[in-house]
């Protein structure tokens, strides 16, 4: 689906979401209130210029008292790995964006990421994965790190990583694997009303980060929730 088709299905009553290059900003009436919308679209990389603009928009919403949710549409490449962006502190800009989303959530604005295309590496972590709830549309293709890059970083032969990816979702890119590890809460039905599916997400109570528990239930990350629980118990004395 295109961003226009997604927005029309989400907000059949209309919206004022506009594009600015590869970014989206705006809001729409929804369920008697409003939903704020930001987006990184077009499969474009996220550099410092995009990250700081998205952060500013999220922080402005976080400082408001409307308590309205933020819907973050994501179809990006990885972070922009240009010499300029790296020298100017790209990792700090991405961390700032992720922390802006966490602040918005802490201030009472639900943050829902909607992954409808690609996203990878730091760009994926700072946008979609930094939202309180992440859902996806069929055909989305996320990857925390592609196997070729992982081979260069770990110095392991790519054949070894390909073999591990077949049995361990943590190693593997792709929508199904991110669902199995709990990173993606649900895959929406593109043929049904996206407005109804967004309303269902907003109606569901949310208490903390349930991704590790989802990963355990789905068999993709069997030990993370148990270990995190043991650490939390030990820390409490």
Automatic annotation (TrEMBL):
Biological process (GO), any one: carbohydrate metabolic process
UniProt key word ATP-binding: no
Gene3D superfamilies named among the record's database cross-references: 2-enoyl-CoA Hydratase, Chain A, domain 1
Keywords, comma-separated and alphabetical: Lyase
Enzyme Commission number(s): 4.1.1.88
GO molecular function (one): lyase activity
The UniProt record lists the keyword Amino-acid biosynthesis: no
EC primary class: lyase
Name of the protein in its database record: Biotin-independent malonate decarboxylase subunit gamma
Lineage: Bacteria, Pseudomonadati, Pseudomonadota, Alphaproteobacteria, Sphingomonadales
Gene name per UniProt: mdcE
